């Protein structure tokens, strides 16, 4: 066990990588056991690598690495007077070695990361956690002044290896990056947490593309500028290949989950003619697609969103690595009615907490308590 003075340092890949990977493994067991665990494939900063600005801090006690935290910075839409664009700092990846918890190490890491945010003129720091993660809620809300901001839903749908039959009444078209950026800026700039650098996200190699769906027979040609007429009903979304960054795998899963997965695979192999809904093989590390920027317009658009989700599912069936499709929507967003998901794998109420880092007059408590201006929000795929 390490001893001596606690020191907080910036992550150095040559010095700290092995220690961080060992800490991740140790945090898979203990008081906060996780069913789904992240396999970073030898790159501990993979989850923030694509952010405009990022930083990882490590806590050392003597020669032992006992804690880590990550953060990223971006410009995004946040509704506050007198402007709607704010600089946001995202907190993620806080891990404390099981034998060193409740010693204030987590608080030290949070404070040091907030200092980095403040030095870079960040307006708000925010983080996401499970609603029932008492340790995380206590640390951020009770000790560090974060406030409950939004409770989005994380929707997870397993990928069956069989392709779905798509409706013949719907057309699907892939957009050029310039076309997708035009539509996102035209229709989603008022959406909470819409990133100012959306073009960089769409051009990233991990973004597989943006697709639109509209009723067959209507036109979708030459629309990439103002004045062009769009179909009366349409929907769009983009897909991010998170599996290229890191993998997911089962950690301390219940025995029933293990047996259900094994039996489902076995039944599907022995009786393929039954065409039962299959459960993917979650026993080995696997990748996933993240659907982001889901938007819809018109009376038929809900069904069009559903069609696009089926389209993405069929894309995923061609990947040996992708086992689930994930998206995150506002807690009261009507999209929840049209995006397919497996209830047992999803999280109906994720918890987003936010903290003002600037003591501007009349703003310090307004944003966390303000009701949503829209039911939708934009989840940056770089922060998944």
Automatic annotation (TrEMBL):
One of its GO terms (molecular function) is acyltransferase activity, transferring groups other than amino-acyl groups. Residues 6-171 form the N-acetyltransferase domain. Gene3D superfamilies: 3.40.630.30. PROSITE patterns: GNAT (PS51186). It holds the Pfam family Acetyltransf_1. PANTHER family: ACYL-COA N-ACYLTRANSFERASES (NAT) SUPERFAMILY PROTEIN (PTHR47370). This is N-acetyltransferase domain-containing protein. The lineage of its organism: Eukaryota, Viridiplantae, Streptophyta, Embryophyta, Tracheophyta.
């Amino acid at each position: 066990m390490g001893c001596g003075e606690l020191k907080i340092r910036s992550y150095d890949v040559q010095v700290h990588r092995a220690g961080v990977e060992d800490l991740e493994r140790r945090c898979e067991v203990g008081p906060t056991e996780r069913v789904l665990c992240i396999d970073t494939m030898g790159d501990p900063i993979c989850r923030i690598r694509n952010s405009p600005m990022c930083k990882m801090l490590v806590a050392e006690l003597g020669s032992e690495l006992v804690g880590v935290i990550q953060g990223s910075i971006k410009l995004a839409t946040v509704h506050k007077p007198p402007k709607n664009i704010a600089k946001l700092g995202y907190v993620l990846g806080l891990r404390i070695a099981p034998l060193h918890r409740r010693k204030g190490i987590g608080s030290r890491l949070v404070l040091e990361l907030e200092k980095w945010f403040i030095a870079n003129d960040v307006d708000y720091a925010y983080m996401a956690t499970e609603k029932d993660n008492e340790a995380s809620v206590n640390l951020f809300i009770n000790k560090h002044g974060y406030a409950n901001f939004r409770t989005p839903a994380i929707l997870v749908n397993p990928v069956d290896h069989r392709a779905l039959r798509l409706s013949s009444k719907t057309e699907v078209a892939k957009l050029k990056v310039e076309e997708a950026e035009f539509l996102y800026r035209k229709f989603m700039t008022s959406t909470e947490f819409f990133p100012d650098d959306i073009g960089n996200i769409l051009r990233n190699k991990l973004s597989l593309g943006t697709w639109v769906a509209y009723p067959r027979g209507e036109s979708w040609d030459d629309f990439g500028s103002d004045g062009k007429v769009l179909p009366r009903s349409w929907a769009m979304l983009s897909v991010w290949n998170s599996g290229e960054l890191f993998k997911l795998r089962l950690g301390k899963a219940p025995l029933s989950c293990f047996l259900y997965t094994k039996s489902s695979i076995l039944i599907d192999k022995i009786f393929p003619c039954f065409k039962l809904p299959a459960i993917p093989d979650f026993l080995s590390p696997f990748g996933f697609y993240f659907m982001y920027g889901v938007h819809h317009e018109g009376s038929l658009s809900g069904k069009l969103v559903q069609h696009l989700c089926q389209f993405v599912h069929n894309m995923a069936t061609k990947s040996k690595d992708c086992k689930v499709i994930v998206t995150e929507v506002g807690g009261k967003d009507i999209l929840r009615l049209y995006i397919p998901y497996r209830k047992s794998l999803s999280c109906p109420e994720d918890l987003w907490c936010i903290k003002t880092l600037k003591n501007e007059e009349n703003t310090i408590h307004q944003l966390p308590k303000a009701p949503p201006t829209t039911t939708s929000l934009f989840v940056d795929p770089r922060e998944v």
